[in-house]
Write a structure and sequence with these properties.
Elements lengths: L6 H10 L15 H14 L1 H5 L16 H13 L3 H4 L37 H10 L15 H13 L12 E6 L18 E4 L1 E2 L9 E8 L3 E9 L16 E7 L16 E7 H13 L5 H4 L37 H4 L13 E6 L6 E2 L7 E8 L2 E9 L15 E9 L11 E2 L3 E5 L2
Parallel strand pairs: 1-4, 1-14
Antiparallel strand pairs: 2-4, 3-13, 4-5, 5-11, 6-7, 6-12, 7-8, 8-9, 10-11, 12-13, 12-14
Helix pairs in contact: 4-7, 6-7
Heme C binds next to helix 5, helix 6 and helix 7.
């Protein structure tokens, strides 16, 4: 049997997470004792591997300084060892064997794209040195330990690192300060927002992929009554139409646990329910369009040449309708008989909605529940310009609603961010998320 990872290897993964994957960093969020306890538990899950004598740790020493000579000789090691067969000549992961690679379970596994600067196993030069010295168990990434001298390994490490154009962002817990301001506005471009520097929060895909927004910039402010959260993130394409069945929309959410003990950063937990403020680009587009043209997009606008057999409700006389005023149709096609979710008072289907946001509660995956009519108290405005979404979310500090997160001066509470990229097919749990950070309310 292959030697199991050392305790130190396991600890490093749990503490630092795996960059660019769903595995988040737990350092600063779990205590040392909790991390030791979880490591002991992990070992019980693979008793055979961990009962074998521990593997010999690799002592990588300290990395030498980068010099042109070292990079050039690293490049020739890269060529000699045929790293390019899988990782590609330029390191983008597009080598001739790349498409056919499978892991030990038979699933396709792309070779790392070094240009992204995302190293699951850590981006410290020592981590990279270790990766190709040991290989990666369970994957086609071979071990080159015996084949290379220490000198060659360092040169190769420096060369591989030099291929990345970006660096990973630390996932350490950060504090977003919501300071008192005299003006709260839902205009995401108001200069008031850029007065304070943003907090950069690292994001990771819950569904593995190599391209995703790496971070969101978060700011917060309050005026004593309303709390505003301001988010900025990169997204090269604006996806704001979900009328077509094969398209998905951009969206964003912030999550506050109702208690101080946060649950799962992606969706709360049974013992730690969350309040979620969710914004969607298609709802925003409907509202912006409505303001401009008093219209709303529907299947007819996406498919102008479509033909419908019959609309039994067209031209119907509504004067004696028994629906209450809130359900009275504003357009012929708004007959609640056909908008059944709306007739059942699902706020998501309200054809007259005024806010591009929905307020939810969740107690773990599969439990997302929209707050009913009358309890929806979240407003917002998100706009896209030149590859960047800028969004403001507004909510009362103290709504008095027990399912809402409520904030008092001096509070420090956990906050997590989620971003959906429609072009990448994101929807529901397929999203890009942050770990828990903290938001501090200052008078
Ligand atoms: C047979 C194909 C193949 C060859 C040849 C190969 N690799 Fe890899 N390599 C992979 C795969 C696949 C992965 C991704 C494993 C994963 O994601 O779990 C990987 C991952 C890596 C990583 C880790 C990236 C991370 O996210 O931490 C490094 C570093 C690396 N390779 C370096 C090299 C170097 C240097 C060489 C040449 C000496 C090389 N590889 C040769 C397939 C290969």
């Amino acid at each position: 049997m292959d030697p199991a990872p050392t305790e130190e290897d396991l600890r490093r993964v749990v503490e630092n997470g795996m960059a660019g994957s769903a595995m988040p960093a737990w350092k600063g969020r779990l205590s040392d004792r909790e991390i030791s306890a979880v490591l002991s538990h992990i070992k019980t899950l693979a008793p055979d591997a961990f009962s074998a004598p521990p593997s010999q740790p690799i002592h990588a020493g300290s990395p030498p300084a980068v010099t042109p000579t070292r990079l050039a000789s690293g490049k020739s090691v890269y060529e000699k060892m045929q790293c390019a067969k899988c990782h590609g000549a330029g390191g983008v992961g597009d080598g001739p064997s790349a498409a056919a690679l499978k892991d030990d379970l038979g699933f396709p596994i792309p070779p790392a794209d070094f240009t992204l600067g995302i190293f699951k196993g850590g981006d410290d030069p020592r981590d990279i040195y270790t990766r190709f010295t040991t290989g990666m168990l369970g994957t086609p990434m071979p071990s080159f330990g015996e084949l290379l001298t220490d000198e060659e390994r360092w040169n190769l490490t420096l060369y591989v690192k030099s291929l990345s154009t970006e660096s990973s962002l630390s996932d350490e817990p950060q504090t977003i300060v919501a300071a008192l301001t005299s003006k709260i506005t839902d205009n995401p471009y108001d200069p008031v927002w850029t007065k304070s520097p943003p907090v950069r929060v690292a994001l990771r895909p819950l569904w593995q992929r190599s391209r995703f927004p790496r971070f969101a910039e978060v700011r917060a402010a309050h005026d004593g009554k309303t709390l505003a959260v301001h988010l900025v993130w990169f997204d090269p394409s604006k996806d704001a139409s979900n009328v077509e069945v094969d398209r998905f929309v951009d969206a964003a959410a912030v999550q506050f646990p109702l208690s101080d003990e946060p649950g799962f950063f992606g969706m709360g937990a049974v013992l730690s329910p969350s309040n979620i403020w969710h914004w969607k680009a298609d709802l925003q587009a409907d509202i912006d369009l409505k303001l401009a043209e008093r219209e709303r997009r529907d299947v007819e606008s996406a498919y102008p040449n479509m033909v419908a057999d019959a609309y039994p409700f067209l031209g119907k006389d509504w004067s004696g309708a028994r629906h209450d005023d809130r359900l009275r149709p504003v357009k012929d096609y708004d007959d609640p008989t056909f908008l059944t979710a709306w007739a059942a008072e699902n706020p998501l289907s309200d054809p007259e909605r005024k806010s591009p946001c929905t307020e939810y509660n969740a107690k773990g995956p599969g439990s997302l529940t929209a707050q009913p009519h009358g309890h929806q108290s979240i407003a917002g405005n998100g706009q896209w310009r030149g590859g960047v979404w800028t969004l403001v979310l507004l909510h009362e500090l103290h709504s008095g609603d027990e399912m809402d997160a409520m904030f008092s001066m001096g509070d420090e509470r956990p906050i997590a961010i989620a971003i959906w990229d429609g072009a990448a097919g994101d929807r529901d749990g397929q999203k890009v998320v942050s770990q828990w950070h903290r938001m501090a309310l200052r008078p």
